[in-house]
Protein: Ribulose-phosphate 3-epimerase
Organism: Anaerosphaera multitolerans
Amino acid sequence: MISPSILSADFTNIRRDFDIMNETKVDFVHVDIMDGNYVPNISFGPGIVSQLRKLTSIDFDVHLMIEKPENYIEDFVKAGANLITVHPNSTTHLNRTLNLIKSFGIKAGIVINPAENLDILKYTLSDINLLLIMSVNPGFGGQSFISSSLKKIREAREIIDNSGYNCLIEADGGIKLDNALEVYNAGADILVVGSAIFGKEDPTSEILKFKELLK
């Protein structure tokens, strides 16, 4: 599955980019929310998400790179999020935050940064629908893929498959056509792709190439 990251989209021509995602029937739209505190960058808030929601019926995969995400869950649900992922170290009571997300009838997930291990899965697999493995350090688009992420994806796949729980794995960061299949074969179900789609002259063609590659 493909989840194009609109962090790399052209916001001066955002309707065109959403038309492209609608026409190519991507699986998710990946929405990165950054507050300038948890990560050293700022993107946008629920007000912009609610405007973007009008442009598509595709599920919004909302990645909260913010401090105290529990204070904003309801706002992003109302804005149109279908799935919300949070960083475990950004919230004081992770279990409570995950259950808050699910209380609104949407899916919840956690995010593992490149230098973090998978130990937290022992205590969260029963609460999550998705594990997002960052293959770059979060905060900026266009970074290079961290190769050790492949090992982490394989390990996560084994843990999940042996757990009896139904949890998808998403990989985000530095994913291009030349490494997408390797990431997918390592065990990722969803690939977040940003600059490798929207940074190209023909985004439609690039999305179709990714979809063909992962058939």
In short: The chain has one domain: 2-213. Residues 135 and 173 are 5 Å apart (CA to CA). Residues 149-163 form the longest helix (15 residues). The beta strands are 2-4, 29-34, 60-65, 83-86, 107-112, 130-134, 168-172, 190-193.
